[in-house]
Amino acid sequence: MVSGPKPNEELEAVRKRLIGRWHKVRSLECADAYPEELEFLDRPRFAGTKGPNQRFIIWDVGGYEVVGKNRLRIDTASDEQVIYEFQLAGDLLRFVDRDGCQFEYKRIRSLSGSVQESDVHNSHNDSGAVRDQYDEHFDQRTTE
Question: With a threshold of 0.85, does the pTM exceed it?
Fold first, then answer.
């Protein structure tokens, strides 16, 4: 009998894919309280960064844990641990909160480790086949 990866190994692999810096690229008004930038560390800790017009962000700093293939528990600014539905496809990371609010981040990639203006601006105009395939897959997951 051939056995595949154990559930904990699968969740760890998903967690490793989250590690890095992310910039919010697509969201509804309901997502204004989520950070403009987000960094997942290996520890597992995260840090959120406010955008220029943001006053309060729900995710400031704290811990996180992948608790299911598409479920992430995040420590919020009020110290509540909240589970979010998420979908990770390549460099796109989409969340749905418990109220149904959807928002999306794109991985920040640069050699120097700083935010590249081209990465941020190009992510707003990303409408290719990868985006369509990603949306289709995510929509199927949220209706199952």
Answer: no
